[in-house]
Specification:
28% helix, nine-stranded antiparallel beta sheet, 21% strand, alpha+beta, Beta-galactosidase, Chain A, domain 5, six-stranded antiparallel beta sheet
Length: 928
């Protein structure tokens, strides 16, 4: 834990920060107040994106090339239509009033108002942020947040980074900021802390530290602005009038300047800027496009979005508004620090009707009262996480879990996308191309997104992905089950879910197909909402009803022949197969996917689990339970059947494969050993006979099926254990399970030092090659970033370790153990002579996964690769990055560097290593 979070001798001991009557810590009480709508504690949060440019929402081009239409170089000068971006940005839940930090090191050609990175075409492995920033802490109500940004003291090497990556190919590592050598000349640590005094009072403290060899200068600009909602002709924003900011003539007392901010649908706010240590020059402009610069069209206003850049960097003194008013304001501090020296600047935002009390009343708000609030919120965060995280975790494990959860909370984002308006264009704006009405997302005209949503990565993926979000919610249940439930319900609402029952995938293609994991997430979050008997059954019922519509969509759309063998395309796995599964086959026929079929079995058995749970209090659900039970049996029978044109199990290899069913009646297995063939492991549920007997309708129907359809019932196994009668529903039989586990636990196949690889290592020396019609298709093992371009630019499922798939494997093994018990042991690793129960195997795999983030004997964390700074430097070694995926041999982080969303599941894995029976529930609710 960082020094800043350890408290001070003058502050109350963390154990005293509890309500004596309830024994609840303040953050838990705030969560309860927010849930009861007694106080809107989540109204303000880290909801500002880290990249709005280059997104589909801002793309009005003819060809749909969003990177070129709105590049980084336009971002400082061009008003956004659908959102905002910034560094350590905070805004209200509707993204109206935003604040963040801008910086200038007196050498850069650009005022640093947003994070720089390479576009998809520029990066040798796709889009890639090229900045150093870290989410250090956050409570779920965002009553306390902490963010760190490392800023070079020399000119930022924009061109060097672009050229360095341009010269590298797909087989080379990415060229990063550290590779430029610019950091060796010194850098600034810019640490941003936020604390809430009330739901509408936000304190900001920016601590700047000189990590350079000599005294240096830094321009620091806390910035406040309104998202531009007034020039588009919007009717839904609650903003018919243009908002405004103005410097108050009365400064509010010695040592501060006060800006009054007014918005039609947001209360009046005051923004106070501390002047007691460093004097700040107040700057004002409008959040309007500089049309003169970009399009050679006269500006609508003389004061435009890039005014602060022009004023500070280009010395254009007439760029800012001398009347001290506008829709964007900055406090321009200039600080000079000696090597190792630190200083702070402070601001405070509050609703005008709730003026804060400072040392001298409302007139001064930056004295001891400010620091007391900040310190108290730091300690309350410590108390909250002390309750949430197990005391059995080591210091390093606690650091990993806390930063993972902090990153998960920081990656909430205000996401705005109204497809109907995006397709048709805005008033007084150039119309979109006519082709738009038949192109991307044109069939999703009902979609109306205006919400705070958990993002995969607010720079590299600043748009939701529905299957990512499901995993986020399982990790979020650790700290805020209500938010997790709200997110899952949101995607099932009628303004998200398509009328045909499909869940939107992501903005590049809302109609694409992601694995159906929503139901699984809902069950995990439900079980995390309290002990049995006190759980949120209403939440489960709401999700069940809508997910039944989604299940029907899958059956109707992805089982074209009605044989319970499903397709689905790339299914979020970015072409783990031999060719792009989203495109037409290279041969006449149809593709039946082992993972598509297994995902549907998984979906089906989870819906059965939900129906049986709901039937405990409402017998109406027994009929639906029977429906999903029978459908699951049919899918299992289809995937396991043998014979020409049937089934996806290869008896010779003992593995599941995709099959091409040719139009001439022949079949072709695609013998790639990948996660495709392990996905059938996920579809497993154990039912206790005594509990089922309490549901007579379902029990009678299931017994009839078992007694009268022995051909199907062979897939259902009964076993007596510990006095309970348990029924196993699973895709693989016991024999098939053992054969799959031989591959899974073989270090020459899937088992790596840090988890389960996405592709068997056997394909490193023996690539799979398919020659069809003279065209060669090949799959070979690549441990890190892919060396082939398919869907999305890179096909990154050719070997690396992915946390969500590993997590599903681990939790599935725990379920198998619940059925088979200690009597079933397997060799782990294969060839070691060491035999384990399946529960022990699950713990073993979880431990391998968490080693990715833990320092080894030399102090190096595998996720940071060979970086010496992260290994040796005290200013770096406690910082963690939670990557998109990890090298299958070394554990080095690959892909998006801040995809804390699903990689936050490492916190759940840490719990599994401690032996907790349910992976998503912290130290509580382990009765399941």
């Amino acid at each position: 834990m960082s020094q800043a979070n350890q408290g001070s001798s003058t502050s109350p001991h963390p154990e005293t920060l509890k309500d004596p009557e309830t024994s609840k810590d303040p953050e838990t009480l705030r969560l309860e107040e927010d849930r009861a709508r007694a106080a809107n504690w989540k109204r303000w949060g880290p909801y500002v994106s880290e990249r709005q440019w280059g997104t589909v929402r801002e793309d009005y081009s003819e060809d749909g090339n969003c990177w070129d239409y709105f590049p980084h170089d336009h971002a400082r000068s061009r008003a956004y239509r659908w959102g905002e971006d910034g560094i350590a940005g905070v805004c209200d839940r509707r993204g109206r009033l935003c604040c963040s930090i801008a910086l200038w090191n007196a050498r850069d050609p650009i005022l640093k108002e947003r994070l720089f990175g390479l576009t998809g075409p520029q990066g040798n492995h796709g889009e890639d942020v090229k900045e150093l920033y870290y989410y250090l802490d956050s409570t779920p109500t965002h009553s306390y947040m902490k963010f760190l940004y490392k800023y070079p003291q020399q000119e930022y090497p924009y061109q060097q980074i672009e050229a360095g990556n341009r010269e590298r190919g797909v087989s080379d590592p990415e060229f990063e900021l550290e590779d430029t050598g610019v950091l060796s000349a010194g850098y600034w640590d810019v640490e941003v802390e936020y604390a809430k005094d009330s739901p509408n009072s936000l304190l900001t403290e920016v601590k700047i530290t000189n990590h350079g060899p000599k005294a240096d200068i830094l321009h620091v600009l806390p910035t406040l602005w309104y998202r531009n909602t007034w020039i588009w002709g919007c009717t839904h924003e609650g903003c018919g009038l243009k908002p405004k900011m103005k410097l108050q003539k009365e400064t509010g007392g010695e040592g501060q300047r006060v800006v009054h901010a007014w918005h039609e649908s947001l209360e009046d706010y005051e923004w106070s800027v501390d002047q007691s240590v460093h004097k700040a020059e107040m700057l004002f402009t409008e959040n309007e496009t500089n049309t003169k610069k970009l399009f050679n069209v006269d500006n609508y206003t003389p004061y435009v979005k890039d005014a602060f850049h022009r004023y500070i960097v280009q010395n254009e003194k007439d760029a800012v508004n001398p009347a001290m008013q506008g829709t964007k304001a900055s406090a321009h501090y200039v600080v000079t620090l000696e090597p190792g020296e630190s200083t702070t600047v402070r601001t405070r935002l509050w609703q005008k009707d709730e003026a804060p009390e400072g040392d001298d009343g409302a007139a001064h708000v930056f004295g001891g009262a400010f620091e007391a609030i900040m310190e108290r919120r730091r300690q309350e965060a410590d108390v909250f996480y002390k309750r949430v995280l197990s005391p059995r975790l080591s210091i390093e494990e606690t650091r990993v879990a806390r930063q993972a959860l902090a990153g998960l909370l920081w990656t909430k984002q205000f996401y705005h996308y109204i497809v109907k308006d995006w397709l048709g264009g805005d008033l007084n704006q150039p119309p979109p191309p006519s082709s738009r009405h038949f192109g991307r997302n044109s069939e999703w005209g009902h979609l109306f997104n205006l919400d705070v949503i958990s993002m995969p990565d607010k720079w590299e993926y600043p748009w939701y992905a529905s299957w990512d979000l499901a995993f986020h919610c399982v990790a979020l249940a650790f700290v805020d089950a209500d938010y997790a439930k709200d997110q899952l319900i949101l995607f099932l609402r009628e303004w998200y879910m398509h009328p045909n029952g499909q869940i939107p995938a992501y903005e590049f293609a809302l109609g694409d197909v992601n694995p159906p994991v929503h139901a699984w997430a809902a069950m995990n979050v439900y079980r995390g909402s309290g002990r049995r008997g006190a759980r949120d059954t209403a939440f489960l019922a709401r999700t069940f009803q809508k997910l039944s519509l989604n299940f029907t969509w899958w059956v109707n759309r992805k089982d074209p022949n009605g044989r319970n063998l499903f397709g689905g395309g790339f299914l979020g796995l970015d072409n783990i197969g031999v060719f792009d599964r989203s495109r037409p086959l290279p041969v006449a026929g149809q593709l039946e996917q082992a993972d598509g079929t297994a995902w549907m079995a998984f979906f089906c058995v989870t819906m059965l689990d939900m129906a049986l749970t709901l039937a405990e209090s409402d017998p109406v659900y027994e009929d639906m339970a029977s429906k999903y039970f029978e459908h699951f049996i049919l899918i299992v029978d289809a995937i396991n059947s043998s014979g020409q044109g049937r089934g996806l199990w290869d008896e010779e290899d003992g593995f599941y494969y995709d099959f091409i069913r040719k139009d001439d009646g022949t079949s072709m297995p695609l013998k790639v050993r990948s996660l495709v063939g392990l996905t059938p492991l996920f579809a497993v549920l154990v039912l206790v006979r005594e509990e089922l007997q309490a549901l007579p309708g379902f029990y009678k129907r299931s017994r009839w099926l078992i007694n009268n359809r022995p051909d199907l019932a062979s897939r259902v196994t009964f076993m007596s254990e510990g006095g309970s009668r348990r029924m196993l529903l699973a895709v693989p039989t016991k024999e098939q399970l053992l054969r799959l586990l031989r591959y899974l636990l073989d270090e020459d196949e899937f088992l790596s030092p840090h988890g389960i690889r996405s592709l068997s290592k056997v394909h490193e020396k023996s690539p799979f090659v398919l020659d069809i019609g003279g065209e060669k298709h090949e799959v070979s093992y690549v441990s890190g970033e892919s060396n082939t371009y398919l869907f999305g630019g890179n096909s990154n499922w050719r070997g690396p370790i992915w946390l969500p798939m590993n997590f599903l494997i681990i939790t599935s093994l725990k379920r198998y153990h619940f059925f088979y018990g200690d009597q079933l042991k397997v060799e782990c690793p294969v060839g070691s002579g060491n035999h384990m129960t399946l529960e022990e195997v699950a713990v073993f795999l979880a431990r391998r996964l968490v080693t990715v983030f833990l320092p080894g004997g030399d102090g190096a964390r595998p996720c940071h690769g060979e970086s010496k700074a992260y290994r040796d430097d005290p200013a770096w070694k406690d910082l963690l990055l939670f990557y998109e995926f990890f090298d299958g041999e070394t554990g080095r982080g690959c892909g998006a560097s801040h995809q804390t969303g699903w990689t936050a599941l490492v916190a759940n894995c840490l719990n599994i290593t401690l032996g907790y029976s349910h992976a998503g529930l912290g130290r509580y609710n382990t009765d399941e």
